# Entry
Amino acid sequence: MNNIRISILAVICSVFMVPAAYAGTLDTVKSQGFFNCGVSQGVPGFSNPDESGNWSGIDVDVCRAVSAAVFGNPDNVKYVPLTAKERFTALQSGEIDVLSRNTTWTLSRDAQIGLEFAGVNFYDGQGFMVRKDSGITSAMELDGASVCTNLGTTTELNMADFFRANSMAYEPVVFEKADEVVNAYDEGRCDTYTTDKSGLAAQRTKLADPDAHVVLPETISKEPLGPVVREGDGDWADVVRWSLNAMIEAEEFGLTQSNAQTTCAMTSNPVVARLCGKEGGTGAGLNLGDSWSYDIVTMVGNYGDVYEKHVGENTPVGLARAGSPNASYKNGGVLYAPPAR
Amino acid sequence: MSDVSKKIEPPVIEIGILGWIRKNLFSTWYNTVLSLLGLYFLYIIIPPLLSWIFFDATFSGSTREDCTSSGACWVFIKQNMKLIIYGLYPSDELWRINIAYFLLTVSIIYLLIPNLKYKGGVGIFLLVIFPIICVFLFSGGLGLENVETRLWGGLFLTLVIAGVGIVLSLPIGILLALGRRSKLPVVSLLSTIFIEIWRGVPLITVLFMASNMFPLFMPEGVNFDKLIRALIGVMFFSAAYLAEVVRGGLQAMPKGQYEASQAAGLTYWRMMALVILPQSLKMVIPAIIGSFIAVFKDTTLVLIIGLFDFLGIIQFVGTNPDWLGFSHEGYVFAAAIFWVFCFGMSRYSQRLEKKLDTGQ
Amino acid sequence: MSFSKFSKFIFNRNVQGTFYQAITLILVILAIFYIVQNTAENMVARGLASGFHFLGVESQFDIGMTLIDYSPTSSYFDAFIVGLLNTLLVAGIGIFFATIIGFTVGIMRLSSNWLIAKIAEAYIEIIRNIPLLLQIFFWYFAVLRALPKPKESLEFMDSVFLNNRGLFIPDPIFNEGSTIIFYLFWLTIAISIFIFIWAKRRQNRTGLTFPAFYVSAAIIIGVFIAALTATGFPISFEIPELKGFNYRGGMKLIPELVALTFALSMYTASFIAEVVRAGILAVSKGQTEAARSVGLKEGLVLRLIIIPQALRVIVPPLTNQFLNLTKNSSLAAAIAYPDLVLVFAGTALMQTGQAIEIIGMVMGVYLFLSLFTSVLMNLFNRMMKVGER
# Structure
């Protein structure tokens, strides 16, 4: 009798327990055959589920790149949607292995709360969106405005700083979740909606008439967004960091998802050859196979491919890359990968 | 007899529809005023509502372009039905949920049909065996593919949370109630503290605790997924409320019952299990069902911590760019479904109450 | 110790009881210790701060609606107070309206008018079987959609404005000399309380009634007007003005508050109505008939016989509903009403990351409110028992 009870209990528990995360995340991940990636609850272009629960976006593609590098298959990832509040706890407690959820790299997060940033996959800054018919062209004209936003770690502080610095009055209207902000802003509760500019572009697609709204030119903060891992797990951090770097470097050397196969077959450039996994044995240092970077480029794409696919000008999000910090350093942006060698 | 008392028909004005109307609506001048006001109120509310919901609404079609009328666009609900009912559960595995829905419906219908045998057995099946079947069906195991709880959603998730809240909170609630009424001071004090703390705080703070603080309570590396944490929160929360309901039943038991069973030499647990609990639980069944209704409605709060329950998924599909601007249809639909469930439960409890009344 | 003595000792009821209790206590203490231990370890491992020092730190964020002076330079403790006051405000207003609607609907439900009774029943059955969160969302977006933009505001007498940013009403400004009016006002209130007590005593003693209500109302209003005239109207009003985006100046009721109050009072009222109905039905019919037969008028029957007795049944579950309403006001988080949960367990939690302290404080507030109320309830019940004789 007791045995039955205990075994039922054990089965029930084992069904629900998430595998524990121990020191060597990379080894654990390899042996279990997948890893958990923390994403947002739906920001188009960054991480958004479709109707059958398939996630896509540039934040998602960071995790897909890691999966391609580790497993040679971009889909060995389980996505965990997280609220802004619970994301760090989820990472620290081992519920997720990579956090790729529009997370700003700041000193306090890096140094104090046991997180390690593996790079930047989007250079962002907080901005304002207004209705076109309001005639506002600059954030300096927002004196007295009602400002909608959702709970965010830095959003509310930046907003308060901005209005104080310019001695303007405003009325903050702060929601728990982004979806409610969009609804309330759309219903006319606020004159302006503030969050990271990428977020504004993404949320704009959820407005009834996206073209009736415009993002103001001012950027009131620096928000380098990137994937985060647990501190003190160097091997895993390296894998995530170099998966991202490989995507950026592949673009710098013109290796794209569509041309990778042919280019790799006939390249004479040693850098490209290394990215193709034909030379240099870059995988050994990361405890990965040598084709890891080739897999990333062919299965997920280089940074430019991913950017254009999810948030580029031809997508509903429509963020122009040229002239933004997210352009490659060769085109005047700040995107620059250390050499993968 | 017939020849002695010839029936005298009452005046027309006091019988039939007219009489009824006169008696119930226009008996005095202020009743007349009230009735007219009431009629006017209904006139303002009902016709526009009906035409929005039915007459002017669009039922057929597949895209938002089909919704050209001024009424509700039910195409929105129809097209997203799968998401609303099953969440993101993999399409190939939907049969597992369907089996559960089927078993649930059949057992409930069985319970609703009066004068059938083995109702107790079906009830035990529903409360004990069915949940165990569901655990395996939904999450996998025993040869079934594992389905992550993060894919659970929609009405399915709402029913799971409510079901767990209801099934598991009942035994815990009974234990807590017994604990609170216990003669052992430590047990009674601890149960009281436990009950009062859970009853004193809003569910949303419990859910925040489950999603933000719970991982801190566990040793490094031990980790429950978010749904489980939320379920634990909901379970204790509703257990505390049930404990008070059950305690009410225990208090209403005549002292003679306790004394008689003690005199018969029953131990404490036997006395409770065989004599006291069956009677006192029967007394508070309506209140217990009321508690269940509250749990069912409260499950909507999990959307605040980011689970896609029934209401959460309706909001989610409402933000799909293809279906913007139909939030009212979504809310009305959600309201209707919740209403059907809750009203059904409350009617059932009223019926049960009447039935149990006559039984005594 | 012989075996039989030992077994006697083991099976002794008291010994067993003590033994079980000791085990329970040890288990509970162990569990708590385990949790505390884990938490402490985790917090060190993750570099989380602990303690309440953060309460004195500058908060750096703004809050949309504050009942006390507050700015980004105020401390987290101030933010806590702002949230707490906002919670109490919405609870207070909600309780007020819920009681009114609830009593009205409850009495309507018992009306001899079939239509009215059915409308009340429909109201109760519809509202209380739909989740509150859904109703809050619905009313919030319904309110937002129904109200015009600031530039097309609805106006009343050029001083009250209603738009989708809220309701703007003139704000009284107390100029010099207005303090005396305040003192006079409170004085007249004190006098009228005294009149009520005196009238009651006199009635008990002699049976003579005294129109205490009208007299004290006359005193309060009369003195107030006299004082205003004497001091030359030292109270002026700041009238809201349309400036830029919105109206400025005056007092403002934000739409979140309106929608939340609306949803909370409608929802709770449906439960209160049932409480009221049960309370009135609990007064035996003989009481009403007896009261009528002594010749009391219908209104007096209700006021002197039914309501006092029904209240005894109504008040305990009624306070329970008030508590529920207060706890339910925490759903404000969903629609941007800056209550305790949104401001403190939301923004402040995000800024400081000190989940344990903050959620602990928030739970503590609600816990205090409900324990405080149950203490009051026990007192009330004791008073009622004494009255029963």
